[in-house]
Structure formats: structure tokens, C-alpha cells
Amino acid sequence: MALKLRINHPHMKSSLPIVLLAAGLGASALLAQTASNNPQSAIRNPQSASAPQAQSASNQPPSRLRLPPGVAVARNLEYGRAGAKTLHLDLYYPEKSEKPLPLLVWIHGGAWRTGAKDGDVVPMLPLAADGYAIASVEYRLSQEAVFPAQIHDCKAAVRWLRANASKYNLDPARFAAGGASAGGHLAALLGTSGGVAALEGDVNDLKQSSRVQAVVDWYGPADLLQIGIPPSDIKHNDPGSPESQLIGGALLEHKDKASQASPITYVSKETPPFLIMHGDADRSVPFNQSELLHAALQKAGVDSTLIPEKGIGHGFSGAQYLPPVREFLNRCLKSK
Q: Residues 169-189: pLDDT tens digits?
């Protein structure tokens, strides 16, 4: 029987949130693993000279990114550099706002080795019509750089958004992280690893905090040392698996690195509230991954809600799954 577990969250003190949301890994990316598992197989003034030209709902982006009415986008804001690679994000926002905006930062998925910032954001765009801004972030993929490069980039994006909150009419006091699959993993890691120096990187002002105050995790890997135990369509412990490619070697041959890349490793009483949603028929990222994370959060006294999606496999993303996210974000952040 599917269980819905909810725990009251601690009170927040600031007025408006910034919400960070990451996108999914995607079953198709995971299933691209071969049988041989071969490792090779502004907002205040977004049209100012310092910001890209804003695009409104009447001047639509490509059809796959159609904006809700009253929503605009500023594209390709540079948030940092990693070696020769320039890192960008796209910022979606309500065209009219009297107060600093809550922000949803969407970190795209794709098994940490595929994906782009301008595709996976679609399911969350309705939140922009609800008064959230949404930043869709790119980061280095595992074939470009192995872990911890990905979390370094995500934390750099958070610091950049905090440093530029006034410029873009964002509230820097409350950030939430979230996402699906690979994005859920990175969002969960942002949530649990606040203050972990080894995962901060050196891009952008390190005096700015990379902590977040709430996390939405859709079916993300949580414990890379345990992910290969339950039945799965993926041979997670093989060197060609997405997780092994992420850390640069087979999981069980690099246990320290696998542990370093696992959100569950850093759970503490300081971890922010979590909403975890996961299909109990997931054959790519086992449902047990979310059970393990939820149990660890509860043990630490963290507000954690686990919603099993009965009979659902990997990669769910649709309008019917948005209400719990909206309720959680409003309850944790917007209502305070």
C-alpha cells in the first residue's frame, strides 16, 4: 500500500522565498547504458543594458517552451566560468510584481551526461504564473568533468543569485532546491551539504551562502553505495552506469567518492525541509533510494514528506504532480 507521510516543518522568519528546482535524470538517459556497460558506450528592469532582452508571453520562445500569460524570460545570464566554459542560466518571471520574487532555479537532468537548460523547465513554468521566478541552470556534464564539478556549479549559481538578488528583484533570504532524478540528486545534495567546504568550489563570491532552505526531490538518487542493491533495469555498480561515470569510476571501487556524491551522507539537524516524490515502480532509480533518504531525514529530526506514487515508474512529470510541490513551497516559504 502506498503511504503518504507528512511532518510539520519549522517556522521560517523571512517574507519571501527563493526556490531552487532541478530537473530530471530521465529514464531514456539511464537506459542508454549498453549491455556491456562500456564507459565510452532583471527582474526589476530586465531590458536594461546589463541584462538580456526579456521575452514576454506575446513574444514566445520555441513552442516547447511556451510561456504562460503574464510571464517573461531573460535568457543566457552568465553566472560563472569553469575553466574555458561559460555557465549560463535563463530567468523566467512574472511581468508584474510589487515585491521581491520567490525564485525557482531549475537544474536540468539527463543522467548528469545529457540535457540542456532550455528544455526540462517546461513542467515548472506554471509556477511563474503563481508569482515565482524560475531560473533554469546549466552545469558541466560528467563527460566534461567528474564530480564534484556538478555540485560546484550548482552552488556557484546559488551564490550568484544571492549576490545579484537586488538587481533581479529576488529575495535572497530563502532559497529552496528541487528537481527530478539527476536534478533531484543535485537538489538534495544542495539541501544536505550546506557548509561542506569540499563541495563549494571556487566560482563566484564565497562570502555568499550556497545554503537552501527547502528541497523538492523527485525520484533522485540519494545513496550511491546502496543504489545497486534493489532490482533495477540499470547495472548501477558497473563502470558504465550514469552514477559511475559521474564519479569517474565504478561505485564500489571508489566508495569514498560515491559517499561524497551521496546526499544522504550529509543529513543533519541543520538540513532544511524536504518533499520527496517517487514512483514505487521505478526501475531506473529504485524507490528504496527515497525511503532511505526519508528515514535518514526523520532520524535527524528534519521535516520530511515522502509521497509514493503508486504504480508509477521513472520519469513522471506532468500537471497532476505539481499541486504537492506548490503546496509544499507555499507552506514552507511563501506563507511566512
A: 999 988 888 888 899 999 999
Cβ neighbours of 254 (radius 10 Å): 17
Interior/surface letters 116-132, b for 16+ CB within 10 angstroms, e for the rest: ebbebbebbbebbeebb
Rounded to the nearest 5°, which phi and psi values hold at 291?
A: -60, -45
Identify which of 27, 19, 3, 5 has the alpha carbon closest to the alpha carbon of residue 216: 19
Render the burial of 275-303: b for 16+ CB within 10 Å, e for the rest: bbbbbbebbbbbbbbbbbbbebbbeeebb
- What's the CA gap between 225 and 222, in Å, rounded? 9
Q: Would you call the peptide bond into 148 cis, given omega within 30 degrees of 0 as the criterion?
A: yes
Cβ atoms of 286 and 232 within 8 Å: the answer is: yes
CATH of domain 18-32+69-334: 3.40.50.1820
User: What one-letter code names the amino acid at 233?
Assistant: D
User: For residue range 100-131, what is the model confidence (pLDDT) as tens digits?
Assistant: 988 888 888 899 999 888 877 888 889 888 98
| Alpha-carbon radius of gyration of the chain | 18
Q: 259: buried, middle or exposed (CB in 10 Å: 19+, 13-18, 0-12)? A: middle
Nearest to 31, CA basis, from 208, 217, 241, 201 = 241
- The domain segmentation of the chain, as residue ranges, is 18-32+69-334
Strands 71-82 and 85-94: antiparallel
Each residue of 214-262: pLDDT tens digit?
Answer: 899 999 999 999 999 999 999 999 999 999 999 999 999 999 999 999 9
Compute CA distances 189 → 148, 182, 186, 213, whole Å. 11, 11, 5, 12
